[in-house]
Design brief:
heterodimer, A: 113 residues, 11 strands, B: 5-stranded antiparallel sheet, 62% strand
Chain lengths: 113, 114
């Protein structure tokens, strides 16, 4: 199984600012994803982080708002830009390993005031 | 698009058996996951079904019927710690070009009572 860490674990930010969330995996993985989970809701896929190329975004999510980097097979960042209170959520990094089991990082709890 | 349906909430008694159903409509289906998520925590992997049939893993079993677009998670000998949300998720996409995604249902909140 893959072990995933995320930083920061939580943050409180002012509207209009940006926050970058880091995701580190203990092994090389091909498929890495970023999800959002709003209070009491299920997980919504934001984008697939592609190594060495632009991320693939889901409907309703755009690169200007959620820029993603993936410089190698073990690391990715998600930035939440120009934040508003509606961006308050838990942001989760996830990977699919070689046997297609999916694992999640512990999440980053973001509160925007 | 992908459509995944689960009951919103269920209640069951400690020591009993509960079945949580999931129906889906998707193109390019590759497999179905079940996850457990306790409040305030990240989801944890329970099972992954690719072929039709029942897969048993301790107290938890998962069933898949691809022709019916149907799965269930069976929890036996329920314990209080099994109170959590259970998420059904479908892996779909196309192998050419490596296009793969996982889409989640809304989750079923299970409450186990004494």
């Amino acid at each position: 199984s893959a072990v995933i860490s995320q930083k920061p674990s939580r943050d409180i930010c002012q509207r209009g600012t940006s926050l970058t969330i880091q995701c580190q995996v203990d092994s090389q993985v091909t498929m890495m994803f970023w999800y959002r989970q709003q209070p009491g809701q299920s997980l919504t896929l934001i984008a697939t982080a592609n190594q060495g190329s632009e991320a693939t975004y889901e409907s309703g999510f755009v690169i200007d708002k959620f820029p993603i980097s993936r410089p190698n097979l073990t690391f990715s960042t998600l930035t939440v830009s120009n934040m508003s209170p509606e961006d308050s959520s838990i942001y989760l990094c996830s990977v699919l390993d070689r046997v297609y089991e999916q694992y999640f990082g512990p999440g980053t709890r973001l509160t925007v005031t | 698009g992908q459509n995944i349906d689960q009951p919103t909430e269920m209640t069951a008694t400690e020591g009993a058996i509960v079945q949580i159903n999931c129906t889906y409509q998707t193109s390019g289906f590759n497999g179905l996951f079940w996850y457990q998520q306790h409040a305030g925590e990240a989801p944890t992997f329970l099972s992954y079904n690719v072929l039709d049939g029942l897969e048993e893993k301790g107290r938890f079993s998962s069933f898949l019927s691809r022709s019916k677009g149907y799965s269930y998670l069976l929890l036996k000998e329920l314990q209080m710690k099994d109170s959590a949300s259970y998420l059904c998720a479908v892996r779909w996409g196309y192998h050419s070009g490596g296009y793969q995604k996982v889409t989640f249902g809304t989750g079923t909140k299970l409450q186990v009572i004494p």
